[in-house]
Structures are given as structure tokens and as C-alpha cells.
Amino acid sequence: MQSLRTPLSRARGSGSARQGVGHWISERITAAALIPLVLWGLAAALQLATEDYPGAVAWMRASPLNPVLLALLASVSFWHMQAGLRVVIEDYIHRAGTRAALLLGNLSVCALAGSIAVFCILKVALGGA
């Protein structure tokens, strides 16, 4: 005999995972932060399009604001990417072991790539390259 309960009645009373709102807010904050950062990044890329490597290094060292904004752009971009992929993995991967491995891989790859990007920016900005 089939259950007479509807999907809604089965879901009622289950509660929430208590993390959805925090993740949603985090995604919206990073998205809002990316708007001016990406616009600045596009303007910087257009300005640097005709420069060679020494010209780009000179641009980076010309103002402390340039490497700071570039590092923020890289950091917030990788944070936003990690948050978005986390939601996709949580929503569409149903096997717990696979989901855990993908979430760990997502976090690791985004953290590593973001760290390398910030390191390279700081290295050039501080005169190491």
C-alpha cells in the first residue's frame, strides 16, 4: 500500500540544515564586492593591454592601490567560485562519500589557486620578480 502522505507533509517538521541563509548571504556579499572589483580589473586590463612585462610591473609598483585591488579581486573571485561550486555539489551529488570528496577538492583547489595568485601579486608588487 502506498503512503498517503504528500512530499510536503513528509518534509514538514524536518527543519533546516541551518546553513542555507549564511551561504546565501556569503554568495551575495562576494557577488556585490565583485562588481566594482571586476570593473576596476577590466579598466586595468585595458590599460595594460599595450604594455610589456616591465610596463606591467611598473604599473603595479606605481601605486599601492593597484596590488591591493588586484589581490582583493583574486581572493574574492576564488572565494565566490568556491561558494558557488559548493552549492552545486551539495545540490546535485547525492552519495555522501563522493560529495565529501568533491567538497574537499573544491575547497582545496580554490584555496590553493587563490593563495598562489595572491603570492604572485605580492611578489611582483614587493620587487621579487
List keywords for this structure.
129 residues; mainly alpha; 79% helix; elongated
What does this molecule look like?
The protein is mostly helical. Helix content is 79%, strand content 0%. It has 5 helices and no strands. The model has no long low-confidence stretch (mean pLDDT 91).
Low-confidence stretches: none
The shape, in one word, is elongated
Task: State Rg.
Answer: 21 Å
| Straight-line N-to-C gap | 73 Å
Task: Name the beta content range.
Answer: under 5%
Q: SS-based structural class?
A: mainly alpha
Query: How many DSSP helices?
Result: 5
Task: Tell me about the largest β-sheet.
Answer: none
Task: Write the element-wise H/E pattern from the N-terminal end onward.
Answer: HHHHH
What is the β-strand count? 0
User: What proportion of the residues is helical, as a percent range?
Assistant: over 70%
What can be said about this structure in brief?
With 129 residues, this protein is mainly α. The chain has helices at residues 7-11, 20-48, 53-62, 65-92, 96-125.
Give a topology summary:
Elements: H1 7-11, H2 20-48, H3 53-62, H4 65-92, H5 96-125
Helix pairs in contact: 2-4, 4-5
